[in-house]
Amino acid sequence: MATEIQIPNVAPLPEPQPTTAADKPRRRGWAIGAVVLLLFAGIFSYGIVSRLRNAATVRAETMQMALPSVAVVSPQHSAPMQEVVLPGNVQPFISAPIFSRTNGYLKSWFVDIGQHVKKGQLLAIVETPEVDQQLEQSRSNLATAKANLQLAEITKNRYEGLLRTHAVAQQDADNAAGTYNANKAIVDANQANVKQLQTLQSFERIYAPFDGIITARNTDIGQLIASGNSGNVKTDLFHISQPGKLRVYVNVPEQYSQAAAPGLTAELTLAEFPGRKFQGKLVRTANAINFSDRTLLVEVDVDNPTGELLSGAYAEVHLQVPSQSSSYLVPVSTLIFRSQGLQVAVVKDGSTVLTPVTAGRDYGDRVEIVAGLNGDESVVVSPPDSIISGQKVQVVQQSAAAGGGQ
Known about the structure:
The chain is α+β, with helices and mostly antiparallel strands. 28% of the residues lie in helices and 35% in strands. It has helices at residues 23-66, 129-164, 170-202; strands at 69-73, 76-77, 81-98, 104-109, 116-117, 122-127, 205-207, 212-217, 224-225, 238-253, 265-269, 278-289, 295-303, 314-322, 328-331, 335-338, 341-348, 351-356, 358-362, 366-371, 379-381, 394-398. Helix 2 (129-164) runs antiparallel to helix 3.
């Protein structure tokens, strides 16, 4: 059975109207007007955008110029060993003034300044007439005491024999024994006095106590000599020093007192030996800080076999002192001195942070910082006086490194 398809009624499309000559100028005018309008709109938009962009640039540049420009430097680790140069006083290892132990007049002297002497060598002879007379008198007193003792001994022995036969009383025998004992004590005292004067007489001859060099002679023939134990003003006859080994005493500042331990090597430089260095070693310290100047007295020993180094000289002592592991070096121009203490300005995330620091040794153009820095900071060089924490800054220059240690 065939299906019947019904097609709906569709209205026919209107036929296009033909373009007339009058419509063409009208459409062209509208197109030109639209183009002109778009052109003016573009120009206007471009001007506004340019002005906005320029204004934003000016604002950004103004804000950028308003930020202080700073140069920064990175702290540098100080060397593991640093050289500390300190003044030192050169002294002989052994030095002694030579005094007389008896009174008299100088009879003769045998050595003069600069002369090398050996231990036990005769230096001078002193005349002691008073001591000589006292010794003769003491010897006479001793002889008298010995004679009295001998007589008392004979009497004592005789009374002891008579007492056994009951010929004398016990009291008489005791008196004789007491007299003997008293005379014996007198003899002992006189013998001691004689020995004392003999010893004083032996001091007439003055000998060198050790090998050394005579550095001073303060007497001459005929000069009055006073003994060293008298109450008068004492003057040494000679001064003797042993220059084969020298002691150099150095006052080390308190901040290096813990590092200045025995065993450190040291070098001496003297103006009279340009370009030369003499080796020494720190052997002992006073183990106490001097209250007046806050320094530690240390002793450096230096061998001087040829004697070219003179005692009493001024020397510069170069000590190799281990530095603190946490110490850094920064330029002196980074330091800020205020009532809050010593500070440096550190740039962090575009802002400054005033950081308290503790200074160590001053190297002139640089200073050691022993506390307050970690080593990874950017420290402002020559910060302005008005700088504060939290202030925005711009880094314009990364300065050269602070330099190595000494």
